[in-house]
Design a protein that fits this description.
Length: 423
């Protein structure tokens, strides 16, 4: 497991981060653009995601079918994602055919055609995707929780937009947004696997330094939200719930402490919430807690799924688990056990090309620092019991408790007093 991430910069100022993997038979390359749903304005919600889809349709040198045949015929895959704060395009191939991955990824980012026909075709696919997300309540509740938590803030808008916001978008909108956001100041390059860092740098310079350099404005941090609860109607038999707390930008040490804190409460089947709410009381089908950090804000949240009649009791037991943790602290070996769980996840992810490249991209694009797997494990190990308890006092506050409910509550659960919950 390599411990070294090399950072360089093209002549045009584009960061290039590489992490070679000894003995790797594959090579992965990603170009990330610092733009996402939080950078959109009213009237173009969902544009980042639609653009990510549409640029695959055709470039100056080949169409999507030609590119797919080229990648797959050389043992590779090509894909992309849109997030709140970034859009990423990546290709992974065999080590010996890495030139193909580099060529295709760069072509998509630097040379898309973005015409009317392709935009309208891809729009139909995106609309189907948006509809599909709503049919998966255990995933949809994540989007709703963020929307409720940061209502009216840029971070509160979904990555894909809505069907109503996407339908009116045109290829002219996409071209304008591309010219505003897809330029050298917003780009970063990542590569891992069987790679030569010097060759990656040369490729980035040759492929991307000719792109424009638009002026990019600063983002406005969201306001710290107060307590709230929102119920969204759904025809699903189960109720899905987000029970969480906002956090500020914080330091790196605070972010790691919050991640460990969330894991103590709800990562794995030995966690407090799983044992208390599911195993002991059989109130939920699933429950877990996680921490999510963006560049200047974030949250710690428990997600759970249960029958409508169990909603009040499940919420009460979840709140009690948080309150008791603040009062009683960590149990013997609980911190070391949780750290080992997190380190195991990191180690397994580090054994894959896509796991490493996404970790580099996420760390650098969100917080300006990409850590190797070993460095990440060391940061987890550096979290102390005092750090975790300080995070609990900082995060678990009744005046900031946000609850999102997706489902049919029924008469009894519908009358539940959410304000009675204390953490």
């Amino acid at each position: 497991m390599s411990n070294t991430i090399r950072k360089a910069e093209t002549a045009g100022g584009i960061p290039v981060l590489t992490e070679p993997m000894d003995g790797s038979a594959s090579a992965g390359f990603m170009i990330a653009v610092r733009t996402g749903s939080r950078d959109e304005r009213d009237g173009i919600r969902g544009l980042s995601h639609l653009l990510e889809h549409t640029v695959f349709r055709e470039t100056r040198s080949m169409d999507s079918f030609q590119m797919a045949k080229l990648m797959e015929g050389n043992g590779g895959e090509l894909n992309a994602f849109t997030a709140k704060e970034m859009t990423g395009f990546y290709g992974i191939t065999l080590k010996e055919t890495s030139d193909v991955a580099m060529r295709c990824v760069a072509d998509i980012v630097a040379n898309p055609l973005i015409n009317e026909k392709d935009t309208e075709l891809e729009k139909q696919i995106v609309l189907q995707e948006l509809s599909m997300v709503k049919s998966e309540p255990e995933e949809y509740v994540h989007d709703l929780f963020e929307s409720d938590l940061w209502k009216g803030e840029q971070l509160g808008y979904d990555e894909g937009g809505t069907e109503e916001s996407v339908r009116p978008l045109t290829h002219t909108d996409l071209r304008q947004y591309y010219s505003e956001r897809y330029g050298r100041p917003n780009l970063a390059v990542f590569a891992t696997g069987g790679i030569d860092p010097d060759r990656v740098l040369s490729w980035a310079e040759d492929s991307l330094d000719g792109m424009s350099a638009p002026v990019v404005g600063a983002r406005v941090p969201p306001k710290m939200p107060g307590a709230s609860h929102t119920v969204h109607a759904s025809a699903a038999e189960h109720v899905n719930i987000g029970f969480g707390f906002p956090v500020g930008e914080g330091t790196e040490a605070e972010r790691y402490a919050e991640s460990v804190l969330a894991s103590v409460l709800g990562a794995g089947t030995s966690s407090r919430l799983f044992q208390r709410v599911r195993e002991k009381n059989a109130l939920v089908y699933s429950i877990y807690e996680t921490a999510e950090h963006y560049s200047d804000a974030g949250y710690v949240v428990s997600f759970m799924s249960c029958t409508p009649s169990n909603v009040p009791k499940a919420l009460e037991e979840t709140a009690k688990a948080h309150a008791e943790f603040r009062k009683e602290g960590l149990e013997k070996d609980e911190l070391s056990r949780t750290k080992n769980l997190l380190k195991g996840e990191i180690a397994r992810s580090a054994e894959t090309t896509d796991g490493r490249i996404y970790r580099m991209c996420r760390g650098f694009m969100t917080h300006g620092a990409a850590h190797s797997a070993r460095e990440t494990m060391d940061l987890i190990d550096s979290v102390t019991e005092d750090d975790v308890m300080a995070a609990a006092d900082r995060v678990f506050r009744a005046d900031r408790l946000n609850i999102t409910v997706l489902g049919k509550l029924g008469r009894r659960a519908g009358a539940f007093d959410f304000s009675s919950l204390d953490v």
